[in-house]
Amino acid sequence: MMRSRFERQLEALHGALTGMGELCREAISAAVAALLSGDREMAAQAVELEREIDRRERDIGSLCMKLLLQQQPVARDLRAISSAMKMISDMERIGDQAADIAEIACQMGGAPLPGRLHITEMTQAAMKMVGGSVEAFVKSDLSLAKRVAEYDDVVDGLFLQVKGELTELILADASAAGEALDLLMVAKYLERIGDHAVNVAEWVAYALTGSRRPEGPEESGERT
What we know:
The protein is mainly alpha-helical.
């Protein structure tokens, strides 16, 4: 009976994490949409989503503490709960960085963006990583966690492309330096979002194996 109740609470935890991950994706999307269009309402939406992400972090943290204190989980369940507590911290930081992008969007006011294509691609890649890392936890999918970690190379490569484009812009027109630096900060925030998604994937690996290294099933050891 106690185990059945615990499993229902774990399912609730999975649902809450999925919801928080989707909010992170929505916040990133709204912030970059505001950057590309100059839409202040979209920027405000990203900021409001960041506040909701903060609230979800507190709620999920409380649920995790109840599971730890009331259910006396066994080793693997204990790793899953402690990993979830680490994951929500990274997701909260993702929300913060989306809000930072929204703030820059308001400052820029919809100015035409050099390097727009690669910033859009960075956004899509970062959102893919965030969604994949949370899905890996909910589905206990070590292979997916590994793919998320490996995909960080794509985001890093796009960051270097954007950085190169902006460097060329400054060399061609020194008066564009301020705008270029703002865009470089946006790209840096997206790169950091990718890093946080990797952290989440590593906590998935820890929950499943006891190691933060997200090895594939063919490489990993015992899963107790």
